[in-house]
Design goal:
Layout (H helix, E strand, L loop, with lengths): L4 H12 L3 E2 H8 L3 H14 L5 E6 L2 E6 L4 H13 L3 H14 L2 E2 H8 L4 H9 L3 E5 L7 E5 L1 H7 L10 H49 L2
Antiparallel strand pairs: 1-3, 2-3, 4-6, 5-6
Helix pairs in contact: 1-3, 2-3, 5-7
Length: 213
């Protein structure tokens, strides 16, 4: 008896035990991406009352513990995740969750301090991951891992509490901060130019006075 498409997808996800893209599944199973999407939808429905489920992020899909089991799973890993994470870690993690994928410089800009050490800590714990920045090959983008989504009990980023509102508020905050910084930079430039002009005038007046002495 041949397996249905959704069963084949389930087998691949179980074997891989890591995120895999719809495009890759399409190549492996030699079917159209639309058919893969339909198969994933059927599989998700079949798993609705099981201990495992599907996680979706950035076009990738992965088998994970069911959202309904999150409280139980949380109890098993809570100590490891909370140990020494601290306020700065939670702050950085929140920015990545609600503003990611995001660069380190953007995280630093929002927080107002360097986040290098905190990001390294979050990477080691498997809470965030780095990906290539298509706009700048010299930098990376940080995004939450599937493990973090599973721990939080959501199947996709958009399911986070007040996701849309919080993301919009962060964008407004960034825009206001950039505007304020531009104003400060402009004031500094104007002050510097004024000071330079005054020094030039004073020097010129001194030279003129010396001529007529």
């Amino acid at each position: 008896m041949s397996l249905s498409l959704d069963s084949k997808i389930e087998a691949i996800l179980f074997f891989k035990a890591e995120p895999i893209s719809v495009k890759k599944l399409s190549q492996i199973l030699e079917v159209k991406e639309e058919e893969i999407q339909e198969g994933i939808a059927i599989l998700e429905e079949k798993l609705s009352d099981r201990g495992v489920g599907l996680l979706h992020k950035d076009g990738d899909v992965m088998l994970s513990t069911a959202v309904e089991a999150s409280t139980m799973i949380e109890g098993l890993i809570k100590e490891e995740l909370s140990k020494d994470l601290g306020k700065a870690g939670l702050e950085t993690l929140s920015i990545i969750l609600y503003r990611g994928p995001v660069t380190r410089s953007k995280i630093d800009y929002i927080r107002g301090v360097s986040s290098t050490f905190i990001l390294r800590n979050l990477l080691v714990r498997g809470l965030v991951e780095r990906m290539a920045n298509p706009d700048d090959q010299r930098s990376f983008l940080y995004r939450p891992t599937f493990e973090l989504l599973s721990y939080l009990g959501v199947s996709k980023i958009e399911d986070l509490p007040e996701y849309k509102e919080t993301r919009e508020n962060l964008e407004v905050f960034e825009a206001q901060k950039e505007k304020e910084d531009e104003g400060i930079a402009k004031d500094i430039t104007n002050n510097s130019m004024t000071k330079s002009s005054e020094e030039i005038n004073n020097q010129s007046n001194e030279e003129t006075s010396k001529k007529y002495e």
